[in-house]
Structures are given as structure tokens and as C-alpha cells.
Specification:
With about 50 residues, this protein is mainly alpha-helical. The chain is about 75% helix and about 0% strand. It starts with a helix and ends in a 5-residue tail after the last helix.
Length: about 50
């Protein structure tokens, strides 16, 4: 009985960590494909029309 509970918890924990890796890997891939360009704040202010 204890072996069954231990195996179920072990597989559940393994699955949880495996699923947690997916968003981290996707974030890493997206950041690699973004490139090295930087945001120009003066240009960004001109494009924004709404606000205060």
C-alpha cells in the first residue's frame, strides 16, 4: 500500500516539474529570437498618442 502511494506521488512530482520546464524553455527561445535591438524611448513616446 505504501509503495503505491509513494509511486503515485513520485510520478505526480515528476510530471509537475516536467510541465514547469515548458514555459521556461519557451521564454528562453522567445528571448533568443528577439534579437539584440534596444527600445528607443524617444521614438516610443512619439508613437503613443493617448494618456494624460
Amino acid at each position: 500500500m505504501l509503495d503505491i502511494i509513494t509511486a503515485a506521488l513520485s510520478s505526480s512530482i515528476t510530471l509537475t516539474f516536467a510541465l514547469a520546464i515548458i514555459p521556461a524553455a519557451l521564454a528562453l527561445l522567445v528571448s533568443l529570437f528577439m534579437g539584440r535591438s534596444k527600445l528607443d524611448p524617444s521614438q516610443a513616446d512619439e508613437e503613443y498618442v493617448g494618456g494624460h
